[in-house]
Amino acid sequence: MAELDTRIDFYPTNEHQGLKYRRGRVLPFGATLVPNGVNFSIFSSAATSCTLVLFKKNAAVPFAEIPLPDEFRVGNVYAIIVFGLDYENIEYGYKMDGPYDPKNGYRFNKNIILSDPYAKAIGGRDVWRDVANLDRLYPFRSRLVFDDFDWEEDNPLETPMEDLIIYEIHVRGFTAHQSSGVRHRGTFAAIREKIPYLRDLGINGIELMPIYEFDEYEHSRENPETAELLVNYWGYSTLDFFAPKAGYAATGKYGMAVDELKTLIKELHRNGIEVILDVVFNHTAEGDHRGPTISFKGVDNKTYYMLTPDGYYFNFSGTGNTLNCNHPVVRSMVLDCLRYWASEYHIDGFRFDLASILGRAQDGSPLNNPPLLESLAHDPILAKCKLIAEAWDAGGLYQVGEFPAYGRWAEWNGKYRDAVRKFLKGDRNTVGQLSQCMQGSPEMYLQRGTTAGINFITCHDGFTLYDLFAYNSKHNEANGENNQDGNNENYSWNCGCEGETDDAEVNFLRHRQIKNALAILMLSQGVPMILMGDEMGRTQYGNNNTYCHDNELNWLNWELIEKNADIFAFARYIINFRNQHPILRNKEHYRNSDYKNSGYADITYHGTKAWYADWSEINTVFAFMLDGNHAKNGFVKDDTIYVAINMYWDALNFELPQLSKNRKWHVAINTAMPHPETFYHNNNEPVLNNQNNFIVGARSVIVLIGK
Amino acid sequence: MEVIIHTKNDIVYITIQGSVDSKTAGDLQARIMEKLADLNKIIMDFSSVDFLSSAGLRVLLMLYRQLNANGGKVLLVGVSDEICDIMSMTGFINFFELYNTIEEAENHFN
After folding, report:
1. What average pLDDT is seen over chain B?
2. By the 8 A CB rule, do B61 and B29 touch?
3. Do A547 and A433 have their domain in common?
4. Does residue A484 lie within any of the structural domains?
5. Pair (A569, A600) in one structural domain
6. What per-residue confidence (pLDDT) applies to A4?
7. Of A553, A580, A607, which residue sits at a domain end?
């Protein structure tokens, strides 16, 4: 240390209001702890001056404002090292002067204190739904964090994509309900307490809905019927891309959210569970020209936002503004951000909200070769991260099947969701599409392989799986928008009665349909994703857009495990069935040929007649057989699996394909049977008495094992 | 923050009073490091510590690393439930052994 202390840049050159400082280093951007002080660096393409504003934590007024001398600027970057700061207890921001000329894209206001676009933590929402202090000076304040977490031997898991089973979680919703039984409900620490549950369920990846700092009070209002406060619960509105949501940490009030989140990730990794973040780079919380100036707008409006020729905000996100993702500076920020999360937080993958926006040019037009998507795909630090696109945006771009992939990107397969839903409700002309879905959508992803598609039937956006079979249409009145919000195309079927009912027959059918859906999802090639709570029949009472509810509509009620014990048992079984059968997790598509000379092609298609699949419009049944010699594209041996799905309203007799060499069909799954005879565990599957035929019940799925 | 350090039978006893945060962490670290030159058994008494910030936790971790490299050990005594909870949620607790009383910690060393 003594030797290092001789460096001259460890000592101040200037003093202002009792604070000592010197010229800083322009890179990295943001605030960085350096010996004896803190280095602050910020970019603005058009600011004419920059002042660093320092607060004691939560103080009403700043304790110092240091105007940066012009010699501290290199190009368009201002940098300063301030010495002797109590770095745990300060908050900082900037005042930037420059032109106010909205028509030409400039919105500088030297009186507003701006948050650092590279802040690693934000103060102001340290405790979820604590007092909304929006009238205080500088409500969302940049803070410093330690970046020296002790990861020990931990690294991202790099689980092969084809082996991944994703479970989508809202951090608060997962454990906020009192039935969760955890110490600190609704937090990162609480997820850690639930790791045994996640392991037991059999999933090996969790996808966290937005955890970048956001303001839960943004656009908050009263529910007209109940007077309950409606909030920004989902959090798809980022205040800062580098800061974790402090209110999601039980230790947020102590400024330790970073350590708590890292501890969760480390522990998940120890248990073989990957962490994928749902990231929202399409817009920010600053809204349009009527929205607040928090950071980007005042730092460099013209760089960070896509602007119309007359200086208004393009709105491809449906939320007011659009981040200017293909501006070189913004591109760098996105890249810096993801690198930071991948390296500092050991994040395993990212799911990009409305990712098609990331492929739009600065004027909003879709690019053929979007530089941001290409950069991310080829980035050295992100090389092993999963990159998953929500391949559409609110501006009408829909790219499922054709998102610019560069050999890396996967997509939320929206077509899978719709096709499986339509088939499950017995729609006509759906068997061909279902077959595609269960093969991993080769029609769309022939070159990209099965893992280009994230298969899902439900996600946070839309009905839960239970509601898919309990409601014909959305019931969003509680959102206070006259049921105008949320998707109208749900492809759902209430099984004979809208909403909750005592009718045992309807309830039995609903439970069966949930099991059918879970079976289809887990028996499909590609990467399955389950919505939190679907494994225990979670309901949102028909609300398909619960973005604003911080209540039991969104909180997972853990008592459902008992109430819907049959659903839970089946979900757990079918997830583990997938894990036990490598044949369901191929990386490459089926070749429709017997390339292992086993006597059977890797996949064969059947119907009520063996070896004859009926693709006609009126058909509602589908059966297929996977030959065990072709598991993992022929590298591994598995059992032969036969799946028959009957979405006809009555039971049908299915003729079974014959097995070779003394092998016999065993029953693994029959969703027509009541619990607990719906499924049989590995090696306990009963042999079929009749090896030639099977009566598949109305709206049921059977799975047979040939061994 | 007040720190009292004394040595008895090859064990360094560190008693801390008050809060350990970024203001006091550097001082605490410096004072402990002085004593580490030839001793590697430490008992830290936290019964009078009301708050341990991120910086405070990091001093503990550095101490752990330093001692671990020399085959030594640091035992924590009298950690309040709240601090224990924070240490648990932020992962720091995994590096330490906690005891209710000085005697129990001494017994561990003996």
Report:
1. 91
2. no
3. yes
4. yes
5. no
6. 55
7. A580
Closest CB to B54 among A150, A255, A267: A255
B89 CB neighbours in chain A (<8 A) are: 184, 187-189, 192, 249-251, 256, 260, 263
Residues of A forming the active site: 353, 390
CATH of the domain at A627: 2.60.40.1180
B64 touches chain A (CB under 8 A): no
Task: Measure B21 CA to nearest chain A CA, in Å.
Answer: 8
Quote the pLDDT of residue A478.
93
User: Which residue of A lies nearest to B94 if distances are taken between CA atoms?
Assistant: A263
Q: What angle do CA A503, A505, A511 make, to 5 degrees?
A: 105
Q: Which amino acid is at A93?
A: G
Q: At A256, which amino acid appears? A: M
Same domain, A549 and A640: no
Residue A681: which domain range?
593-706
pLDDT at A317: 86
Helix (H) or strand (E) holding A560, with range, is: helix A560-563
Nearest to A259 among B22, B23, B91 (CB): B91
> What pLDDT does A357 receive?
92
Tokens 């990467």 sit at which residue? A527
At B84, which CATH number? 3.30.750.24
Residue B16 belongs to what domain range? 2-109
The DSSP result for A407-443, as a single string, is: TT-EEE-HHHHHHHHHHHTT-SS-HHHHHHHHHT-HH
Report the C-alpha gap between A89 and A86 in whole angstroms.
6
What pLDDT, in 10s, does the model give residues A354-387?
Answer: 999 999 998 989 999 999 999 999 999 999 999 9
Count of domains in chain B? 1
A647 and A693 housed in the same domain: yes
Query: How many Å is the Cα radius of gyration of chain A?
Result: 27
Provide the pLDDT for residue A8.
81
Residues A422 and A560 in one domain: yes
Between CA A356 and CA B86 the distance in angstroms is 41
- What domain count does chain A have? 3
Which residue numbers in chain A have pLDDT < 50?
A: 1-3
Contact A263 B91 (CB under 8 A): yes
Q: The CATH number of the domain where A418 resides is what?
A: 3.20.20.80
Of the listed ranges A595-604, B38-47, B97-106, the one predicted with least confidence: B38-47
Averaged pLDDT, B83-103: 94
Among A535, A554, A580, give the residue marking a domain's end: A580
Instruction: For chain A, list residues whose CB is within 8 angstroms of any CB belonging to chain B.
Output: 86-89, 146, 148-150, 183-184, 187-189, 192, 249-251, 254-256, 259-260, 262-263, 266-267
Are residues A126 and A9 part of one domain? yes
From B18's Cα to the closest Cα of chain A, the distance in A is: 16
Give the pLDDT score at A5.
65
Output the pLDDT for position B71.
87
Copy the structure tokens of residue B14.
């560190």
Sign of CA dihedral A651, A471, A530, A408: positive
Q: Which residues of A touch B61 (CB under 8 A)?
A: 150
> What CATH number is attached to the domain comprising A91?
2.60.40.10
Do A88 and B61 count as a contact with CB atoms less than 8 A apart? Answer: no
Residues A32 and A116 in one domain: yes
Which among A88, A187, A262 has CB closest to B21? A88
Is residue A489 included in any domain, yes or no?
Answer: yes
pLDDT digits (tens, 9 = 90+) for A15-58: 998 999 999 999 999 999 998 899 999 999 999 999 999 999 99
Nearest to residue A299, comparing CAs of A533, A549, A26, A107?
A107
Query: Which of B62, B89, B96 would you mutate first to test chain A, the one with the most A CBs within 10 A?
Result: B89
Size (chain A), residues: 707
- Residue B55: closest CA among chain A residues belongs to which residue? A88
How many contacts does A have with B, using Cβ atoms within 8 A?
56
Pairwise CA distance, residues A473 & A248, whole Å: 33
Q: For position A3, what pLDDT does the model report?
A: 47
CB contact under 8 A, A89 and B54: no
